[in-house]
From TrEMBL:
UniProt domain Ketoreductase: residue ranges: 41-226
Pfam family, one: adh_short_C2
Species of provenance: Anopheles melas
GO molecular function: oxidoreductase activity, acting on CH-OH group of donors
Family listed: Belongs to the short-chain dehydrogenases/reductases (SDR) family.
Keyword Heme: no
Composition skew (Basic and acidic residues), residue ranges: 10-20
Family matches, as Gene3D superfamilies: NAD(P)-binding Rossmann-like Domain (3.40.50.720)
InterPro entries named among the record's database cross-references: KR_dom, NAD(P)-bd_dom_sf, Sc_DH/Rdtase_CS, SDR_fam
Classification via SUPFAM superfamilies: NAD(P)-binding Rossmann-fold domains
Chain spans, region Disordered: 1-23
Listed name of the protein: Ketoreductase domain-containing protein
Amino acid sequence: MSEQTLPPQHQDKQPGREGAMHPLPEYFSERYKAAGKLAGKVALITGGDSGIGRAVAVHFAAEGAQVALVYLDEEDDARETAEAVARQGGQVITRAGDVADGEFCRQVVADVLDTWGRVDVLVNNAGEQHPCEGLEALEEATWERTFRTNILGMFQLTKAALPHMGQGASIINTTSITAYKGNPSLLDYSSTKGAITAFTRSLALNLASRGIRVNGVAPGPIWTPLIPSTFTAEQVARFGADTPMGRPGQPAEVAPAYVYLASEDASYVSGQVLHVNGGTVVNG
């Protein structure tokens, strides 16, 4: 198989477990040079147990942030991420629950405030996806579930956190390359990611006068637990082969984009989306 990029593998349950992946994703590289860009900041990250969320949490901790991790139910992955954050010198709390539940979101924010007294950076990263052959095969319940997790959850947590975010705060939303080029088998996911991009741009305009920046990151094919828990073993084996770079990206290659948007280096950047996708030009 000339275009094989990964060993064939599949997990039966979403959102997947990072510890069961082979090879394990790279979430932090020793090549990364931290510079205290987030010293003293408090960051709240959803989908923080694994994948991109884990990489962002560890990079934020390396830059001096305290980190609250929100995840669905992946206890082992969340524990490993918390340990990795601690190894970087960051304080960490973890909370398990569904971001589409408004009461859960309000409780998470209350816990962060009780622990550190404020929220400086909010990373809305939780997501799910369900492949289907065509629109006729996509169940209404599945469509609603994906929208509840991917965009309603973002609305719920942002609404809960926003009263406690002041001038200089940063909101970063994970959208996707699928928002810009589509995906024939990920109709639900792609649609939510388009909504996230529009939400990001609109909220940036809404909050500009308050000095709160809102941006997005649109990853391409990144090696996270969502991949083997979504696609067949044969599809996983070719994951990322169709990018100009010919391979999937690692979470450690995406996380520095979040560091930039969270830091003062991006003080004049709002309403924008950074594309970390292996070289695909989407002009968005």
